[in-house]
Amino acid sequence: MTPSIAITAEVNSMNKPNLIVIVGPTAIGKTSLSLDLASHFQTEILSADSRQFFKEMSIGTAAPTPTELSKAPHHFIHHISIEDDYSVGDFEKEALTKLEELFQTHDTVIMVGGSGLYVDAVTKGLDKFPKVDESIRVNLNQELHTKGIENLQQQLKELDPQYFSEADIQNPHRLIRALEICIGTGKPYSSFRKNEAAKRPFNNIFIGLDAERQTVYDRINQRVDIMAQEGLIEEARKLYDKRGLNALNTVGYKELFKYFDGEWSQEHAIEEIKKNTRRFAKRQFTWFRKNEQINWFNYTTPSKEIISFLESKTQS
């Protein structure tokens, strides 16, 4: 890059508004930090947690409480139903539209969430995949209902071990999407995920919260116990009749459905929720560690230190 081009790029970057993106594993403290940052920058928060989109699922998704929601304007929290057809592509379009609106009155906006694919959709755009025969998806959905999600997980592990190691394999929609590309093209799904990032009219500043693996696991175990005390079992029971929906085939609900079916004891279901959430956190680590733009902080770092760091970034 020639000096003149470099200077132009720097000026253009300085003129752009800033999207502060808070990421990290579940139960690490992202919500608390997002509220502190929103207060300091006098701005609003977008959620990129795909499970918190659903208005029927509050306790099991650890969505912000009414008190937390009242501390700053939030977007994409409980904005759709479990019965709605909503994709990451829909979220990308709606989030970019909302950001365009917010940047009219704010120099900085916060986005927070642990769903790596949804974060990537907003910050760098979705990868482009070839079209495949729609009958493949139909067949995979039939296999899901007749053979269970474990069958799809095993297929993905064999056809694309790289994506299997980082994907949320408890998400049937994600599994089927990857498998239809693998089967339809004869190539791994991950081989198509190498496109350059889309140009965005804002700067991405990534903040990652981290901790020792055992600390994360301990926090997850504690959170699940608190969820149970706050009514998770009752929340899941109200959704039992709709358990066939993809949105409910997720950690925290599918385990309790097995308890309601009489397959597991309540105690075993709770332990399975803890185990599967720990596995999910491990995959979140794998996903976010690939992003070299993330500025990592220990979860105990005072928010004022992170704010000081961000001030140096947004004013430089």
TrEMBL record:
SUPFAM superfamilies referenced in this protein's UniProt entry, alphabetically: P-loop containing nucleoside triphosphate hydrolases
Its EC number(s): 2.5.1.75
MF-aspect GO terms: tRNA dimethylallyltransferase activity
Binding site for substrate: 26-31
Annotated positions binding ATP: 24-31
Annotated InterPro entries: Dimethylallyltransferase, IPT, P-loop_NTPase
Flavoprotein recorded as keyword: no
Location of the region described as Interaction with substrate tRNA in the Swiss-Prot/TrEMBL record: 49-52
Signal peptide, first to last residue: none
Site (Interaction with substrate tRNA): 115, 137
Highest taxon, organism lineage: Bacteria
Keywords, alphabetical: ATP-binding, Magnesium, Nucleotide-binding, Transferase, tRNA processing
Catalytic activity of the protein: adenosine(37) in tRNA + dimethylallyl diphosphate = N(6)-dimethylallyladenosine(37) in tRNA + diphosphate
Name of the top EC class for this enzyme: transferase
Cofactor requirements of the protein: Mg(2+)
Keyword Transferase applies: yes
Family the UniProt entry places it in: Belongs to the IPP transferase family.
PANTHER family per the UniProt record, alphabetical: TRNA DIMETHYLALLYLTRANSFERASE
Function: Catalyzes the transfer of a dimethylallyl group onto the adenine at position 37 in tRNAs that read codons beginning with uridine, leading to the formation of N6-(dimethylallyl)adenosine (i(6)A).
Subunit comment: Monomer.
Name of the featured protein: tRNA dimethylallyltransferase
Lineage start: Bacteria, Pseudomonadati, Bacteroidota, Flavobacteriia, Flavobacteriales
Gene: miaA
